[in-house]
């Protein structure tokens, strides 16, 4: 089923029925404690989310086993071990395994098979299809990052899976019909002489795709409100026999959005539970949080809806347990609860490792290719609060590419500014050999380069919005670099400009912090009506982060990946020397006194 043309209503029903034909075998009912207690059975749901291309417990940017300060491990191979353990413990009992999306993007492994040797060109099976097929999921929901590499690659990956991919609110823009399978109903056997349990599984993807991957989906797909979509499909699933309804949703539970109100809510999972009757539990993702167990009361029925989110990258596995009873010919849930398992407690599953080993090794060889020599070590550790050469490297390359592309056009005489964000706090270009993995570790997203025209007033407004990243600190108050930012604003939503000089006064209220904004290398204030070409990534230009003024028609868009532009520049130059690109142009101050 492709996203280019939505299935008919009959196709959806046939597909849902086909997905429901394989029964799961479960044990006989538990022994009743006394004659007055009804017989009960149990069902376990195991949930993963936001695996982001992680199969091995491996950090491709460090070329070493993954490690962090909390001793987390990562990868689908670790998840497989936990899932297989629980399946063995519950042998003969009903166990479902779902994933809530963001699967095929996020590591050099995933990027390699989307960009260097794309599966659409080679026909090779995607590493995440290989790994997940070994586990044998019951369904996966499409996350927003599934759309990063275009619909043909997404459609091929779906065809390579041995289980359904769901996204009820992704709609064919021309026909208004579902572009992907909305739901499945699984027939689950609960043991000898027990009536079959029919479990409905509804998938919801994130409406932000319309912004973040506009270039891939505009005019092809529409992304409807997740709450309204659940309200549409849950009654249909119940009417078609679902005894228990689960939702696998790629959206957080905060009720807020990183973009403006023009699109449906980005993180509405708690609102879905509250407003849509008939839902028993929701596995969710997208926010990369660890939510072990949360109950939300449905405002219409009073029912308690169970929610759980299993962190990111394969670090955690959600386990939901349901106790069921048969009353008056209907199944009822008498108890439900969720727990969280940590993948750092187990070894990697050898079958998953074997399935992806050749692709893993090919990726390692690729990212260890040397692209240039760096004259000194360049680190991103301080890039959030100091102007650093390594972030200027990104801005220099972006400025150079856009400037060259606009030569001879109507925009050739406008100054070119550039925007970059400190995506990584750990990125380093070592002195000496700089490898592809070093550059990839600096620019971890698959963004492409675009450019728009902004006025001086729009540049100032943009900088003011970006400056909300910092906490307000009075003059003379102690400054801890590790605590200088507002935890509500992620690092990737703090942008710095090159091409103008400016001060950010963090002692002043948000919105009044850009106390100096002048033309580069001068004392001339930037006029409100001045015009600039601004190089920016496609995520930001499409509205990601809800920055003001940037969502407008591009004057440059060659669909060139920024990470590859950085690699190409380094290879062509052969040497990475800060003297070629470092231009200190911004600083944090308090009442004009530099903070650092």
From TrEMBL:
It catalyses: a ribonucleoside 3'-phosphate + H2O = a ribonucleoside + phosphate; a nucleoside 2',3'-cyclic phosphate + H2O = a nucleoside 3'-phosphate + H(+). Residues 44-289 form the Calcineurin-like phosphoesterase domain. Its cofactor is a divalent metal cation. Gene3D superfamilies: 3.60.21.10, 5'-Nucleotidase, C-terminal domain. Its main location: other. It is found in: Cell envelope. PROSITE patterns: 5_NUCLEOTIDASE_2, TAT. The keyword Plastid does not apply. Belongs to the 5'-nucleotidase family. This is Bifunctional metallophosphatase/5'-nucleotidase. It comes from Micromonospora parva.
């Amino acid at each position: 089923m492709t996203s280019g043309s939505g299935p008919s209503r009959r196709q959806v029903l046939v597909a849902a029925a086909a997905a429901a034909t394989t029964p799961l075998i479960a044990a006989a009912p538990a022994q009743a404690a006394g004659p007055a207690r009804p017989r009960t059975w149990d069902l376990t749901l195991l949930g993963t989310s936001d695996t982001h291309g992680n199969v091995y417990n491996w950090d491709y940017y460090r070329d070493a086993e993954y490690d962090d300060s909390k001793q987390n491990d990562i990868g689908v191979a670790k998840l497989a071990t936990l899932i297989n353990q629980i399946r063995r413990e519950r042998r003969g009992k009903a166990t479902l395994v779902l994933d809530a999306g963001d699967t095929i993007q996020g590591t050099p492994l995933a990027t390699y098979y989307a960009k260097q040797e794309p599966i659409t060109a080679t026909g090779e099976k995607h590493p995440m299809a290989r790994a997940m097929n070994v586990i044998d999921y019951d369904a996966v929901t499409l996350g927003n990052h599934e759309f990063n590499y275009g619909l043909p690659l997404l459609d091929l990956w779906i065809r390579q899976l041995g289980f359904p991919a769901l996204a009820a609110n992704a709609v064919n823009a021309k026909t208004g019909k579902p572009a992907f399978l909305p739901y499945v109903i699984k027939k689950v056997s609960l043991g000898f002489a027990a009536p079959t349990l029919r479990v409905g599984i509804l998938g919801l993807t994130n409406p932000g795709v319309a912004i973040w991957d506009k270039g891939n989906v505009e005019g092809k797909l529409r992304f409807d409100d997740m709450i309204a979509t659940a309200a549409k499909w849950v009654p249909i699933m119940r009417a078609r026999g679902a005894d228990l309804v689960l939702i696998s949703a790629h959206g957080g539970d905060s009720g807020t959005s990183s973009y403006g109100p023009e699109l449906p809510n980005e993180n509405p999972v708690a609102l879905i539970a509250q407003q849509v009757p008939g839902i028993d539990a929701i596995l969710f993702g997208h926010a990369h949080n660890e939510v072990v167990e949360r109950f939300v009361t449905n405002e219409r029925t009073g029912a308690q809806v169970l929610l759980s989110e299993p962190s990111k990258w394969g670090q955690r596995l959600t386990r939901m347990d349901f106790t069921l009873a048969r009353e008056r010919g209907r199944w009822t849930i008498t108890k439900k609860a969720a727990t969280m398992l940590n993948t750092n407690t187990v070894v990697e599953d050898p079958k998953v490792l074997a399935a992806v080993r050749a692709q893993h090794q090919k990726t390692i060889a690729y990212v260890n290719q040397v692209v240039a020599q760096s004259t000194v070590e360049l680190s991103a550790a301080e890039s959030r609060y100091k102007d650093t050469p390594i972030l200027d490297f990104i801005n220099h390359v972006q400025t150079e590419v856009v400037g060259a592309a606009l030569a001879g056009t109507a925009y050739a005489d406008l100054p070119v500014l550039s925007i970059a964000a400190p995506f990584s706090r750990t990125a380093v270009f070592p002195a000496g050999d700089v490898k592809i993995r070093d550059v990839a570790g600096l620019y971890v997203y698959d963004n492409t380069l675009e450019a728009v025209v902004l006025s001086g007033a729009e540049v100032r407004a943009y900088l003011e919005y970006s400056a909300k990243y910092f906490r307000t600190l009075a003059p003379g108050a102690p400054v801890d670099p590790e605590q200088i930012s507002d935890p509500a604003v992620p690092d990737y939503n703090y942008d710095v400009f090159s091409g103008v000089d400016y001060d950010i006064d963090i002692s002043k209220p948000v919105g009044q912090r850009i106390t100096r904004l002048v033309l580069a290398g001068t004392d001339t204030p930037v006029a409100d009506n001045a015009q600039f070409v601004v190089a920016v990534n496609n995520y930001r230009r499409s509205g990601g982060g809800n920055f003001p003024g940037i969502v407008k028609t591009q004057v440059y868009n060659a669909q060139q990946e920024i990470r590859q532009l950085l690699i190409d520049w380094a290879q062509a130059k052969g040497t990475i020397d800060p003297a070629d690109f470092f231009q200190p142009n911004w600083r944090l101050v308090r009442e004009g006194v530099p903070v650092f």
